[in-house]
Prior knowledge:
475 residues; Rossmann fold
Amino acid sequence: MKVLYATSEALPYAASGGLADVAGSLPYAVRIRLIACRVVLPLYEDVPSELRQGMKLITSLSVPVSWRRQYCGVYEANHNGVIYYLLDNQYYFKRPGLYGHYDDAERFAFFSRAVLEMLDYIDFKPDIVHANDWQCALVPVYYNLFYKQRQGFEKIKTVYTIHNIQYQGKYGHEILEDVFGISQEAKSVVELNGVINLMKGGIDAADKVTTVSPTYSKEILDPWFAHGLDEVLRDRQWKLQGILNGIDTDANNPETDTLIWSNYSAEDLSGKAVNKTKLQERLGLPLNREVPIVSMVTRLASHKGLDLVEAALEKLLSEDIQFVVLGSGDWIYEEFMREMQIRFPQKMRFCSGFIPELAHKIYAGSDIFLMPSKSEPCGLAQMIACRYGTVPIVRETGGLKDSISDCGDGGGIGFTFKTYDETDMSNAIHRALKAYGDKQFWQELIGRCMAADFSWGRSANQYIRLYRSMLKEKS
C-alpha cells in the first residue's frame, strides 16, 4: 500500500499552525509501520535555505490551471526517512508567508492540480491520496473530474481531512471556470449557499472524510460547530470518521528535553520541582514550591475560552495560587492580561507572544494547565501538559473530551467540565486546587498523566486500518 499525503504545510519545511505538526509527524509514523507514505507540499520562499540544500530537482512539468498552463518543478527531499515532494512555481510561491495573498484560490488550485499531474512523472504510484484542509480540497474534486478515468489512475482512493471546519475556502462564482477550471455543469460539487466552498467540494468528492478527533466528528454535524456545513456532513455521515491526533513524544519528553532546566521522569519528579522554582525565578514570582502554578499556553481568542477566564480570574487570584499565561492574539485579551498582572504582581504573569523555549519551561514548571475552550477540533497543549506531568483542566469538547478523562472516578488524568460556563470552569479549578493539597493523590495523578499514550503511533494505526478498509471496497 502506498499513500501520498497532500498538505499546504509540513514541518520542518513550512509551518503556520497545527497542520504542519500533523503533516510532519503522521506520515513518519505511518512509514515506520512499513507503509509507503510520502508527502507533497508547495515550495514556499519561507522554506529555510539549509533545507533547500538537501533537495534535488527530479522533473518539471506543465500544469493546467483552467485555460492556461503553468510551470511546475518537482523537488525531492528526505527527512527522517520520509520522502517529501516540494512543488515549485515562483509566480505562486516565491513570496513571504504561506497564506493570505489575494490569489490564494489560484495558488492552491495550481497546487491541487499539480499533485495529480506529477503522478505521471514520479516513481511513486499511490493507492491513497490523502488531502488536508481547504487548500487541498480540490485534490479529490479534480481527481473525480479529470483523472479517475485516466489509465493508471483508476484505482486511486481519496481521503480528505478537516483540521478546522471554520476555514473553508469560500469564493465567488466568477472564478469557477476562469481560476478553478470547473464547468458550470459540474459546479454543484463545490457550490454551497450561493458561493464556491472548497471544503464542501472536498467532503463531497473524497471517498472518506476524517476529522482530528472522534468527538469533533460528531460535533460538526451540529450547526453550532459546523459553520454552515452541518447538512452536507449529515448527508455524508457514512464516510465521516474522527481520529485523534497525537504529539511528538520525542520533542516533548521531560527526560530528554534540552529546553527545560532539569530533566525528570514519572519515577523521579525531583527535576519537576527544580523547574517550578526556576520558572518562578525567571518570571519574578515569589519562590514557593507549595503554591500551585496554574498556566495557559494559548492563542488569546474567544474560542479558546478567554471570556470565561476573563470572568473568573479576579476571584481565582484571591486563592493561594500563581497564574501564568503565554500567548498572543486579540488585543482586548492581551490588555486584560496585562492589567491583571499589574493588579496582582505577586500572583500573575503574562508573557506576550509565542516563545517555544518558554512554552516548554511553563509545561515543565507548572502544576495545573487550564484549557477551557469553547471549541477544539483536537488540541495538542493538553497532551503536552500531561507528558510533562502538569495536570490539565479542560472543557469536554472536541479532542479535549477524547484525550482527557476526569479523575473523579479514581482513574482519569485531569479535571473536566461540560457546560461553557464560568461557574462550571471555576468549580473544576477548585476541585483541582483541593486535590493538589492531597500529596499522595496528586503524585498518583501525575503518574497517570505521564503514562498516557498520546504518541502518533496510535493515530497512525487507525489511519492504516482506514486505508486498508478503503482498498478492500469496490469502486
